[in-house]
């Protein structure tokens, strides 16, 4: 019987994650909703933030103390849980790095191609039974500026390159194949496609503002698959209505779900999707399996992977 | 003055083609519409079928006789002009091979990704201001069967492969990298994406019929960027309504433009576009330049390229 020393795994969820059955006998699993989080957190060895739309961790964080020793979020971004107390603590934070890369890259490619081929208008004409031939754009030979040089940004750049697009990656730290922030404005000004795939940090919040939309080409299209607050949404709506840029697609928003009354639903040239770019059939299963694997490392005393640099707000790396 | 021996170039068009100014002094250029075609054809040395939607050449063809010696069509398909008398004649037929390959490949990729990511439904929800998260499909790892092994089919296969799809090409003649007709049904039965990009000939007319839709996977999606008559449109509509397959996109139709009263506009799961897959900004210019280059070869007595095998109905080759 290992029960007395069995670690307590607290799971913040709405629907229970798959695959946790594999931890039977190796963890005492306690499920909680947002309301119960603060009471249970100090007794947890591990917190699994399965409901990654929740911001409850920040308010519920117990402050100084040894527990929980490890927090894992089933998301790439950690902005919803980071707070000064967590950052200052000894607690290790890990994320779901890797699970969303290829799906998000495909989603961006889908949006780029759909905009180049004017598919939204084609289907609008279909509803009206109108046959209206137009000239589409060729994607090969165009240029993209991908902001965010983590695995998601890199997968986006790789996928666009496979379609003949020339991508430029921009990250916080310039390195081989990655431009630093100093190059951003110059790259934005010549991009046909600007893709936001950066983590939300103090350095990136609101970075896509009126000034930056103003320097983009009138033919440019903007895509956000990172976090809503990277973008000044009012400025984007204005840039579209004034034709500073030719179109945009947002998969993420400052307030999610986007309220029915939001004007963003109806901005001409703006495509709205419900934060689903990374979520392909089987994703929950993959996220569950990823956590189980991390748990096994942790329980065995082996070093964790996907460890977030809490001062930066993302997993640093190549 | 070379005027007395200057060849007569008859151009069947609605809008005059660009770039023909470069033939000034080297061709006597006569423009005609469909009504005037039959009267002018016997005096033409060269016929440029610029209006590739016209079927007038078949009826107007002068029968036996030396002229025109060469017919060029500003399209990949030649089904709209081929007739027994033209096939039996000594007249050389050339097409616009090459111009449409990459644009059509991108268009197919756009449709594949849009269907995988369920974009049509996302934009339907946007109109209704509804936030409805769904799980999308991952394109990488899926299988495509591309029917038509000419440069367009090959460009489609190449582009899908760049997205991680495993493509199988099917052509009339099996060869390295290309399956023959004997493999078609087996490949259809396991494809996630079936793409029709074949020329319209006696061998391909109506090849996508109830039997073939019936053998596809319920999760399969069908895309036609070849010619409308490759498909039994009624059978496709039935296959969709009975959920034999999961979706389809048609860019070409038996009757174009698709009449407003056609039931195809409203078949659930069917995406309709107005024969524009190959037409990207600058395409008319490219078609004009391609013809001028061919004309220069022809006038200099050099062999033409893009020569159609009139018995097969397409340009043979790799």
UniProtKB/TrEMBL annotation, chains A, B:
Residues 110-277 form the D-isomer specific 2-hydroxyacid dehydrogenase NAD-binding domain. Transmembrane segments: none annotated. The keyword NAD applies. Pfam families: 2-Hacid_dh, 2-Hacid_dh_C. Residues 33-308 form the D-isomer specific 2-hydroxyacid dehydrogenase catalytic domain. Keywords: NAD, Oxidoreductase. It comes from the Bacteria. One of its GO terms (molecular function) is oxidoreductase activity, acting on the CH-OH group of donors, NAD or NADP as acceptor. The keyword Lipoprotein does not apply. InterPro entries: D-isomer_2_OHA_DH_cat_dom, D-isomer_DH_CS, D-isomer_DH_NAD-bd, NAD(P)-bd_dom_sf. SUPFAM superfamilies: Formate/glycerate dehydrogenase catalytic domain-like, NAD(P)-binding Rossmann-fold domains. Belongs to the D-isomer specific 2-hydroxyacid dehydrogenase family. This is Hydroxyacid dehydrogenase. It comes from Streptomyces actuosus. The lineage of its organism: Bacteria, Bacillati, Actinomycetota, Actinomycetes, Kitasatosporales.
